[in-house]
Amino acid sequence: xxxxxxxxxxxxxxxxxxxxxxxxxxxxxxxxxxxxxxxxxxxxxxxxxxxxxxxxxxxxxxxxxxxxxxxxxxxxxxxxxxxxxxxxxxxxxxxxxxxxxxxxxxxxxxxxxxxxxxxxxxxxxxxxxxxxxxxxxxxxxxxxxxxxxxxxxxxxxxxxxxxxxxxxxxxxxxxxxxxxxxxxxxxxxxxxxxxxxxxxxxxxxxxxxxxxxxxxxxxxxxxxxxxxxxxxxxxxxxxxxxxxxxxxxxxxxxxxxxxxxxxxxxxxxxxxxxxxxxxxxxxxxx
Length: 286
Description:
The chain has helices at residues 2-10, 29-32, 37-110, 116-253, 272-285, and strands spanning 257-258, 265-266. By secondary structure, it is mainly α.
């Protein structure tokens, strides 16, 4: 469901995404080897795409807000200008009415007997009246232009407000998509942790087994070394016993020997030196 929502927001299909709220986790090499590398790379790519679109929308939203504030300031200035022009028109209208009233009063007072000076003053007042009417027309045209500009500014501000609302909705949709992505990523992370823990437990058991086997092998090597030493000693002892046996066999084959002086008999295993020493002992005793 989260993947379909993000695909609609981005206009492209993504299989797995990574949450934006934090930096994408860099898994150790031993852990990455235990999970599907293609899924992890898809998560990384989707995270980069979502993050780029999120910050682009955020910058556009901030720019639109800035332009909206500028338009609002211009709108307020235009309103002040319109108010000032309206005040000036009202003042001109009041002055115009006052001059008309004064003129009518003078005409009623003086009547047909007015002199040349009165006619001149009337002409002057009429000229001023025409000037005031011209000024009023100019002020009215300026006021109409200001009102049109104000209406245009209002329409532009309305369009910008719509754009800001659309950008805010887009950001909201992106945030919602990111929330769904975070949920998918947390689920993926939990599965990954379970796999890693299982592999780690299995490896620990295998390591304990290997250590026990190594200890047994070391003990066997130690026993083998002891047996080798004992074997060498035994071989040496057997060699000595064989030599002694050969000597006894040779002595058994040698006949008994008798002393030529005292006729004492000696077994054949007696050495020639001992026998000769015995015989010489007779001569030394004489």
